[in-house]
Amino acid sequence: MDLPTPMRQALDLAQRAIGLSEPNPRVGCVIVGADGAVLGQGHTQHAGGPHAEIAALQDAAAAGHDVRGATAFVTLEPCSHHGRTGPCCDALAAAGIGRVVASCTDPNPLVAGKGFARLCAAGVAIDVGPGEAETQVLNPGFFSRMQRGRPWVRAKIAASLDGKTALDDGRSQWITSEPARRDGHAWRARATAVLTGIGTVLQDDPRLDVRLVPAARQPDLVLVDSRLEVPSTARLFSAAQRRVRIYCAVPDSPRRAELEALGAEVIALPNAGGKVDLAAMLADLGRREVNELHVEAGFKLNGSLVREGLVDEWLVYLAPKLLGQGQGIAAFGPLPGLEAAPALDFGAIERIGPDLRIVARATPADRG
Ligand SMILES: NC(=O)C1=CN([C@@H]2O[C@H](COP(=O)(O)OP(=O)(O)OC[C@H]3O[C@@H](n4cnc5c(N)ncnc54)[C@H](OP(=O)(O)O)[C@@H]3O)[C@@H](O)[C@H]2O)C=CC1
Ligand SMILES: Nc1c(N[C@@H]2O[C@H](COP(=O)(O)O)[C@@H](O)[C@H]2O)[nH]c(=O)[nH]c1=O
Questions:
Q1: How far is CA 204 from CA 27, 152, 167, 174, 201, in A?
Q2: pLDDT digits over 337-349, tens only?
């Protein structure tokens, strides 16, 4: 079905909220008069700032447009609750908007349908549906958190053409090109948080921040470190204004206070094997409003995440290089074999500089 032009414009605006609106969804709004002229438009701003509908109403007011009787095209059900901002449905009704066309109902079970009900009660006509699939694709993390109580997990891997992600001795070396690494930073920037394992920190001392592309905010850093071995001097602590959470398996470690003094939050979630309980960690991150979780980890943590069925999407960069048998480390530790392998669907495949970028998603049946 062809989308109405204003809804297409609203979806384009929603894209601009990527990396900005966390933990709020990426939403766009276009207000159109009876003659089809655009009266105001906007998208979700930073958390605590205006939602898309308010930004569009403000835009219309700034241009001196009268929106009474106009139609608001918005990519998600207008909110009905007092959160960091006031309810958008009340603002639309108070401004005299005559009709709201929304892509879909809010996936938050606590508020779903309430915005529409309030608009109806205020005499505003409602249409729901155009752009629903596009809104879900744009907001996998928000929908995942609301519907499954955990983030959308996207694991990035940078590998040689034969799938090796590090040298045998674990030495850090760039495998992929500078354009591919810059592209990887853009994916970091859209995530609420970046996750890594202690093995990667001890080997590479990575920063795992966004430096190669502009960023409205730095994603949080999440570290899986069973025994709290991360050195206090690790570079991941040096990024300014970034929240660092460390999941461990030792509730009473003497290192906790030292790491907390560096500003890190330390959370003990042990599993039966004395490592971090990864499913419980994802549920905890969901409660802490993490929408998209960008994983850059080594073969051990990647392997555990795959074996537990916790990865929703793969972002794989392949460099035109071959390391061959006996050289280089595979992207994953042992997996259960071809019969039990998780089913994946390829999505977009693009060339980034000299490398390839492949996006693959776990099929819905294989997502947790
Ligand atoms: N090319 C690429 O895309 C990337 C490559 N790398 C490379 O990977 C290498 C490091 O790999 P690796 O040592 O596997 O590091 P990881 O980042 O996978 O960290 C692994 C550690 O996480 C801890 N852990 C805690 N709970 C769990 C759990 N439930 N499941 C699995 N692990 C858990 C374990 O520590 P403990 O035993 O203490 O419990 C384990 O040793 C480096 O050489 C690095 O350069 C890393 C990232 C990306
Ligand atoms: N080797 C490799 C990558 N490795 C990943 O990048 C991390 C370093 O991040 P930073 O310290 O922020 O620059 C490193 O620890 C590992 O997770 N990434 C890539 O895009 N291409 C590559 O060839």
A1: 37, 26, 12, 11, 5
A2: 888 888 899 999 9
